[in-house]
Amino acid sequence: IRRLMKDAGRPRARVRVCMNPRLRGVQEALDDETIRDIIESYPWVHVFLVVVDRDGKSSRAAQLADVETRARKHLKKAQMLIAIAAVEEVEVWALASERMPPKQWSEIRRDHHPKEAHFEPLVQRRGLRDSPGGGRRLLGHAAAREIERVKARCSEVRELAERLRRLTESE
Question: Whole-model pTM?
Fold first, then answer.
């Protein structure tokens, strides 16, 4: 996300994961009251990003569009909420930065459980299981260095990058 903000013209944007409240699961993250409470608790935040796993649910995009619409009534004029679904899980974004044959990437993209089938074995092979975030932090930094490959492979990341770019241009 930091790399996407930098590419959108906001190299000094502060990106923070919401730790209060600590969200547990997609349903809690998309709950109207929870979103309202977060928006009200952080009035200085300009852009709220809600990133959840799609988890094989084709209805997730419509659900997230609805969340964005409902959140507008709680946002100040200078605030925005963007909700996106990682296909199928956010760990795929780290996998997208890896060099691999197109056939292997297609297999990952079709898999409804890529974290277990592809991400966790990569973490194990690289000895990252005990690193911060179970390898997510280090592999996330690697993905940031290969952001063009990630955007080429993950349409949702490409869409998020475009939305952030448009947002910074409109300011």
Answer: 0.93
